[in-house]
Amino acid sequence: MATMLAQTSFKFYSFIFLFMVFFHHCTCDVVQLDKNNVDVILNNNQLVFVNFYADWCRFSRMLAPIFEEGSNLVKKDYPDPGMVVFAKVDCDSQPDIAQKYHVNKYPTMKLFRGGQLVKREYRGQRSAENLADFIRQQLKDPIKEFQSLDEIYELQRDKRTIIGYFTTKDSLEYNVFARVAKLLKDDCQFYVGFGEASKAERTTGDNIIFKPIGETNPDMVYLGSLANEDLLKQWSQDKCVPLVREITFANGEELTEEGLPFLILFHNKEDTESMEKYSAEVSRLVSFKSSINFLFADCETFSHPLHHLGKTVKDCPLVAIDSFKHMYLFPKFEDISQPGKLKQFILDLHSGKLHREFHHGPDQPAATTAPPAPKVGFHAQLPKEVVEKAKVVHTQKQILIKSKDAINTVVTLEPGKKPSAIPTIKGSIKIKAPGMNEPIEVVSKSAPVKETTPPEETSIESIFVKMKPSEHRYTILDRDEL
């Protein structure tokens, strides 16, 4: 009897031990999202940290236990329901969710605040402590409260700043302001004052202003409804995220993942004049904001791409497009202020002209009149189909005709045959090729015939594509030139 009790007790405690071990290592604290619960989870928690993964991806498998451990660490610090949730999405079984949030690599970790996607995803080290610390930083209040307007008047104008002047902290308007500040805390600094501290700036009621960089730039007042979160968010985003942004090694990966080609000004930091010219011209191209990223880069920092373009720091300023396949150099920076010049450069990218000319040379102007008369020398303009049939040595649309005894005779071009060369010739040559009804007569002066070959093509491949997420950290989904 005692033996049976001992065996039963051993089995019971073994079961409890195994259950506790399993419970400790299971992913039950990380919520599995699908189309049925994703909106509820995102909208009913202050922060939701989501791991988008694929089971077949080795980096996803490596992250899974780390993500779970990070969740456990955060839960100890913030145990209250509705504060923080770690969640995951199986992108193979939930492709619609992955597509909605533009997941193009595995694993991808994105943060949602109050149901809204935070622009910057997590790109830091993949350790439980780093993940936990990232969340701790996100929960800090990004708004600095001032006690005197003197603090605002003495602010350095080296950062974009949004300031709220409110009567009380308990108002709906301030809560809207606070939510927007949390979404844009990486792009702007936020200040707020209540009651007597902000009274002098509230002569017409609660209000919000934006202070741009630079002492001479005027403040901008928000004129929309303070209770309209979408409107305030859009206004703040337009002010905090400039049209022209600097690219660095710190944000390069993030910018490449926005999926837009780059228009980049390379300039020296002390050269403010070129930056002003570039910014002024870009301000006229706002309609292209959704199809290209307007950037600037320090020549010293990005000397390698300049070298790739055959340029040095001494050649700055200069402008180039990086399509993630090739780099295209704007001909002359001095022409940037010519009306429509930079705009046409962008249009040529999107029409495919830059890519086409990169591989095949400059486009030939379309013929608007009758074909031109044959040129002096031994070049005859022939129809494209004739060129293809004859298969002779040619440069673009011109064929080089050579013969030893072709004075006042008809030379028939034969497919697959190269014409023989001669040093000089006088008189005229009549050329007949397959597909031609009548010979073309070419008049020649006495002159040596020189062998001509097309210029060697210089490859200018994309440099900034190398700033994309590394294949040593992610499984990348294929993308071609933008």
TrEMBL record:
The keyword Signal applies. InterPro entries: ERP44, ERp44_PDI_b_1, Thioredoxin-like_sf, Thioredoxin_domain. It comes from Phallusia mammillata. Keywords: Signal. GO terms for biological process: protein folding. This is Endoplasmic reticulum resident protein 44-like. Residues 1-140 form the Thioredoxin domain. Residues 1-28 form the signal peptide.
